[in-house]
Amino acid sequence: RDSFNEAGCDIKVRIGLREGSSSFEEAREVGFSEDADTLGEMFDIIKKSDLVMLLISDAAQAALYKEIFAAMKPGATLGLSHGFLLGYLESIGESFPEDMDVIAVCPKGMGPSVRRLYEQGKEVNGAGINASFAVHQDKSGKANELALGWGVALGSPFMFETTLTSEYKSDIYGERGILLGAVHGIVESLYRRYQRQGMSAEQAFVETCESITG
């Protein structure tokens, strides 16, 4: 929204939330409101939107994808921030409806970092967070331009093209496999191995760190 306002663009950004969400008050505090038609219940907002950015949890995507697809108006675009939904649909033998564009812009950081670096970019040239982008379906012929425009509005100083399949597979392997488990396991295994070979605890620690960091 800030990018559009600063560019003098009249595109309306709306936030859709589940009923009873505590985020309604937070959205109102930063200028979104029901009266201005920029804040509302999730499915009401989806029905009105030309681009639906589906920024909900993986579990919610798996539970609600049928209702989301059904609520989207003809010709609307589905925007994703990572490829989980494709992986889930493939695992159950389903796919995205063929009559919609499906794109992704995937920032390489968590939401608070994306916002912080976006704001920093107003003062520091080149600030912002890098992102990958993917076009999974291009029914309109304009999906690539839309994905790139989304990345620019997000403040990404550099974007690289990928596929939605590569994105979710690298996400599972890199984030959930390596970062959340493998690094810890490798470090502990090396440390114990070096000690079994007769190294002191201090030397085993040094050797382990050097093995991991190169």
Automatic annotation (TrEMBL):
- All copies of the KARI N-terminal Rossmann domain together span 1-162
Pathway listed: Amino-acid biosynthesis; L-valine biosynthesis; L-valine from pyruvate: step 2/4; Amino-acid biosynthesis; L-isoleucine biosynthesis; L-isoleucine from 2-oxobutanoate: step 2/4
The alphabetized list of GO BP terms reads:
isoleucine biosynthetic process; L-valine biosynthetic process
User: Does the entry feature the keyword Oxidoreductase, yes or no?
Assistant: yes
The residues listed in the UniProt record as binding Mg(2+) 1, with positions renumbered to this chain, are 171, 175
What cofactor does its activity depend on?
Answer: Mg(2+)
Question: Which UniProt keywords are present, listed alphabetically?
Answer: Amino-acid biosynthesis, Branched-chain amino acid biosynthesis, Magnesium, Metal-binding, Oxidoreductase
Which GO molecular-function terms appear in the entry?
ketol-acid reductoisomerase activity; metal ion binding
Domain named KARI C-terminal knotted: which ranges?
163-214
Q: Does the keyword Amino-acid biosynthesis apply?
A: yes
Q: Which domain of life is it from?
A: Eukaryota
Q: What residues does Mg(2+) 2 bind to? A: 171
The cross-references to Gene3D superfamilies, in alphabetical order and at most eight, read: N-(1-d-carboxylethyl)-l-norvaline Dehydrogenase, domain 2 (1.10.1040.10), NAD(P)-binding Rossmann-like Domain (3.40.50.720)
| Cited PANTHER family | KETOL-ACID REDUCTOISOMERASE, MITOCHONDRIAL
Q: Which family does it belong to?
A: Belongs to the ketol-acid reductoisomerase family.
**Protein name as catalogued:** Acetohydroxy-acid reductoisomerase
Q: Which organism is it from?
A: Rhizochromulina marina
Ranked from the top, the taxonomy reads: Eukaryota, Sar, Stramenopiles, Ochrophyta, Dictyochophyceae
